[in-house]
Design brief:
By secondary structure, the chain is of the alpha+beta class. It contains three helices and four strands; from the N terminus they run αααββββ.
Length: 153
């Protein structure tokens, strides 16, 4: 029954349009894959340990005086460190590739829109077309847009 309530929902998040949307989707999928590479083996290890160290398993050894293992400490701390480094690298590279200061590659010139913030409304001025609109932004499909933002206050 709960899944029936989600029947009308779409997966618009994973169907991006445009270069920025596709790059964001790539960053999202890469990040999820890196995290799943850690989460899935951890969950499997939990079940394996629970099965191996169950009360009825007579082959499992209980070592109460065991204190330290350098190899286990190395694995325990290196896996999260590598995960953070990988996620940080994916985010760093992706965010620098999507730098908002860089112009988008396009065959058509960018549409210039001057946006003025007024009291309780927005003024959109299209200088090349010599028109303006209040509270409604109109843009052609497939054309990059360059916004110049200012405020009246």
């Amino acid at each position: 029954m709960p899944l029936l309530t989600l029947a009308g929902c779409g997966l618009d998040v994973l169907e991006p349009h445009g270069a920025i949307g596709v790059a964001d989707k790539t960053i999202l999928i890469d990040s999820v894959a890196i995290m799943l590479a850690i989460v899935v083996p951890t969950i499997l290890a939990i079940f394996a340990f629970a099965f191996w160290f169950r009360k009825s398993n007579t082959r499992a050894r209980y070592l109460p005086n065991w204190e330290f293992s350098g190899q286990i400490e190395m694995v325990t701390w290196s896996i999260p460190t590598l995960t953070i480094l990988l996620l940080g690298g994916v985010s760093w590279i992706g965010s620098h590739q999507l730098d908002p200061a860089q112009k988008l590659e396009s065959k058509t010139p960018a549409l210039e829109v001057q946006v003025v913030s007024l009291d309780w409304k927005w003024l959109f001025i299209y200088p090349a077309q010599k028109i303006a609109s209040v509270n409604q932004l109109a843009m052609p499909v497939g054309v990059p847009v360059h916004f110049s933002l200012t405020s009246a206050a």
